[in-house]
Specification:
Length: 371
């Protein structure tokens, strides 16, 4: 069943009377544009599959005639099924259609290397200011002995006799609706198109060897816990000269006992005695940038919040910084001497309704803190 109902000639950008050479040229151009290693468009893969289907239909005289006469309905009733392929191995698909790969070569085709995952741990201060971390990981690199082709130096592979070096076998079936071609990887050479009689001893014919590598990864200021940093082209080496994969570095920001992070804001707490809260006090408050002087006026209440503007986390890939919010906690004495009890009792007796003034409630203060 067709995967698209768009006009197939329009998909390839060719006129309805285009010959096979024109269709082939148009498909090659589109394939190079939409290859996942080249295109960053989110719909590139879907567009490639549509173009591949259009090419399959229009380069077969039977299916093309069926399509020209009955459209997509004719293809569906005729049992046409587009070739299934892996976007990671587009060279195999080109071998199916053309007998060569996207760049016109024969036999084995290059493949992109796999990605590598790594993890690092940084402090909250490093997350605030940015840092550079040396990240070690194991990676497959091209074998220096054979240059990555897996063949022992001084020897050459031979072309597969079963598939003639194409790496694919084609099976033709005829129906009342025309001729249909089914392809599969050659079982003798496993799709390589060649037989390596003398594999490289250094890599056992794999073309790649394992290596311990360390790269310096720049961690941007403001990064959040759990985010990943992509380092392009530092992953596993591709096969036969294919592009290397990427390294994805997961960042874990360690907790800091002094602070709590909420988005780009930082929260901390200062503990005052009852006397300090009543009389007021000038204190030093720890921030991400070091200590800052903070004056708390007489009568500061438990749950009050003082905001240090611009002392929070930097905005990742943006401008400005969040705020640092300081929550005031007042500690109540648990053990009192007789003299202390007497003095507190005298203080209480001398107090009136003006001594304790109620502003906002405790719950309103909590709301203010989290705002």
């Amino acid at each position: 069943m067709a995967t698209t109902d768009r006009d197939l000639y329009e998909l390839l950008g060719v006129p309805r009377d285009a010959d096979e050479a024109t269709i082939k040229k148009a498909f090659r151009r589109l394939a190079r544009e939409l290859h996942p290693d080249v295109s960053t468009a989110p719909d590139a893969e879907a567009r490639f599959r549509e173009a591949a289907e259009a090419y399959e239909v229009l380069t077969n005289s039977e299916t093309r005639a069926l399509y020209d006469r009955y459209g997509h309905a004719g293809l569906r009733s005729g049992g046409f099924t587009p070739t299934a392929f892996d976007m990671g191995g587009l060279g195999d698909l080109f071998a199916t259609f053309f007998g060569d790969d996207i760049f016109g070569g024969q036999g084995r085709r290059s493949r992109r290397g796999a990605d590598v995952a790594a993890e690092i741990e940084i402090s909250l201060a490093d997350a605030a200011h940015g840092t550079t971390v040396a990240v070690p990981f194991d990676v497959a690199v091209a074998c220096a002995t054979c240059g990555g082709d897996g063949v022992e130096p001084g020897t050459s592979p031979v072309s597969c006799s079963r598939c003639g070096g194409s790496g694919r076998l084609q099976h033709v079936s005829r129906t009342v609706f025309g001729e249909f071609v089914r392809t599969q990887a050659c079982p003798q050479c496993r799709g390589a198109g060649r037989i390596v009689e003398h594999p490289c001893k250094a890599c056992d014919g794999a073309g790649r060897v394992a290596e311990r590598r360390t790269i310096d990864v720049k961690v941007p200021a403001g990064i959040h816990d759990g985010q990943r940093i992509r380092v392009s082209g530092e992953g596993h080496a591709g096969e036969l000269g294919g592009r290397a994969g990427d390294v994805y570095v997961g960042v874990h920001v360690l907790p800091d006992s002094r602070f709590v992070r909420e988005g780009n804001d930082i929260y901390s707490q200062v503990d005052l005695t009852v006397v300090q809260a009543a009389l007021g006090i000038a204190i030093e408050v720890e921030t991400l940038d070091g200590p800052v002087d903070l004056t708390l006026e007489p009568g500061v209440q438990p749950g009050d919040v003082r905001v240090l503007r611009g002392r929070g986390m930097p905005v990742l890939q943006g401008f400005g910084r969040g705020d640092h919010r300081v929550l005031v906690n007042v500690t109540v004495p648990r053990r009192l001497s007789d003299e202390q009890r007497r003095l507190l009792a005298e203080f209480d007796a001398a107090s009136d309704e003006h001594t304790y003034r109620h502003d906002e409630s405790f719950f309103e203060k909590l709301k203010s803190a989290f705002r």
